[in-house]
Amino acid sequence: MARHKKTIKGAELFCRSLVKEGVTYLFGYTGGAIMPVYDAFPQFPQLKHIMVRHEQAAAFAAQGVARASGKPGVCIATSGPGATNLMTGIADAHLDSIPVVAITGQVASSVIGTDAFQESDIIGMLVPVTKQSYILDDPYEIPRVVKEAFYLANTGRKGPVIIDLPKDIANAVIPDDGFDATIRYPVLPPPGIGKDQVTHAQRLMASSERPIVFVGHGVIQSGAQGEVRRFLEKSNMPFSCTLHGISALPGDHPQYLGMMGMHGTVEANRAIENADLIIALGMRFDDRVTGKLDEYAKDADVIHVEHDPSEINKNVRATVPIYSDLKPAVVEMTKVVGHKPYKKWYAFAAENRRYWEGIDPVNQGNSRGDNQNPLMGTVIRKLSDLTDGRDNVVSDVGQHQMFAARYYQFNRFNTWFNSGGLGSMGFSVPAAMGVKYTRPKERVWVIVGDGSFQMNIQELGTIMEQKIDIKILLLNNNFLGMVRQWQDLFHGSRFIGTPVKNPDFIALASAYGISGERVTKEKSLEPALRRAMKHKGAYLVEIVTDMDEMIMPMIPAGSRFSDMRVTR
């Protein structure tokens, strides 16, 4: 009697391939074209599907997993509007170099191109913002494509990859032959630092009297924080972090000058303006860092270490361009760097720090009175003090983001998560869900404004259903605060499209079964934060803040560092 060969459906093979890649959590929303994959989930209990309330949230939650774990996060949606709803989260991952694998259902192969129901050319739409894109036309290719997608997402410069799965390929039944997958596109590593580059860098470092080291996102992604710290402490050079470099090194490090750029600290930005040497590690000199390019750090030589060659000399000309992974390059530079006291240079930084501290409203103590609305910076600093700067903080986009970056002292590695390149409002709540799933035993805070909170407020339903224990710190000024600040400074205080009429957020959270409280006076701030910290389960603390508060200092877009404004 002939033996019946074991068979497998394409959707089952797809799920098995995900398991082989170590996937645990998938964030998604079902629909017709992706239904065969969902139907296969029960056969693979290793895969835990989290049903969000909007596909955009699925992409941001996948980012949360990726940012917290260093491994690709996974989001899944159906065809047509399900797939297009993922696009903002995928574009956001692209600009911030976050490894995400997006899975979309697609109409059957036979009707692709006929404008079938819920058909969209999602591959064509996402080509500019993905590292690689696949549309499967053969079920036998599923294992290779899945393996390759995860490899590419997390190799070299990280980023999103999309797999589009037509329904007929998902439903196809084929012999189950084990399918040992092989990759067709291995990524070649950078060449690394050469002897001539080491010699040139050594000469510049030895002659410099006013150096500054830039710590970028690449330090976190490469896990090079130990090597960078040894370089810094051997050389005694001051350093500054980009927005995404924050939490690469402890915020209380004595050589740290704070964040750089548009809303960076006075001491960091004035050091950059007067530096004779910049050592840039894993960062891309984006416009929020540089301001007016032809006026940027005119007296400084630049040593730029970057593993994506397209970023070297793109915006700022490097005196010593080093196309290399960070760890080996920093190790070689550490071998040849000397130690200097830089007394005058640190005195210059200290003078600028004292100047800002003397005018910073947050440093004026309780001069506003206990019964006044707390300042945003005061709120963040209090949270930092109560948590010893060791909690996970997921920020949304706006003034609150900059206040969090400036006033929370991050003392633990890779605990700061936000949307930097695309600046996507609505990022924080779903991204925090992903962070919490990755770090279930750690406390996770959302810091969000009233505008951005309502971009993905429906995810309170996911938090309720899944019992996700995150703490939400809502800074409510009844305005789109960052846009209002620009309108105030540059558009004659014409507040068009920025006032926000808000619902009762505490009542809304309560409708989702989430506890919370509203704070309107500074004296109530600390007790409310302590209650949130002790509460088991999700908790919302709404802080009513002044509508006209500004985040300062500020270098206006496209301006010189010398144009930095410290007051309104």
By CATH, the topology of the largest domain is Rossmann fold
Q: Which parts are unreliable, with pLDDT below 50 for 5 consecutive residues or more?
A: none
Q: What's the rounded overall pLDDT mean?
A: 96
Strand content: 15-25%
Counted beta strands:
20
Give me the CATH superfamily of the largest domain: Thiamin diphosphate (ThDP)-binding fold, Pyr/PP domains
Secondary-structure-based class equals alpha/beta
List keywords for this structure.
single chain, 568 residues, Rossmann fold, 3 domains, 6-stranded parallel sheet
Topology:
Layout: E1 7-9, H1 10-20, E2 25-29, H2 35-40, E3 48-51, H3 55-69, E4 73-77, H4 81-85, H5 87-95, E5 100-106, H6 122-126, E6 132-135, H7 142-153, E7 161-166, H8 167-171, E8 173-175, H9 195-207, E9 211-215, H10 217-221, H11 225-235, E10 239-241, E11 256-259, H12 266-274, E12 277-281, H13 287-290, E13 301-306, E14 320-323, H14 326-336, H15 343-359, H16 376-387, E15 392-395, H17 399-407, E16 416-417, H18 428-438, E17 444-449, H19 450-453, H20 460-466, E18 471-476, H21 481-490, H22 505-511, E19 515-519, H23 525-534, E20 539-544
Parallel strand pairs: 2-3, 2-4, 4-5, 5-7, 6-7, 9-10, 9-12, 10-11, 12-13, 13-14, 15-16, 15-17, 17-18, 18-20, 19-20
Antiparallel strand pairs: 1-8
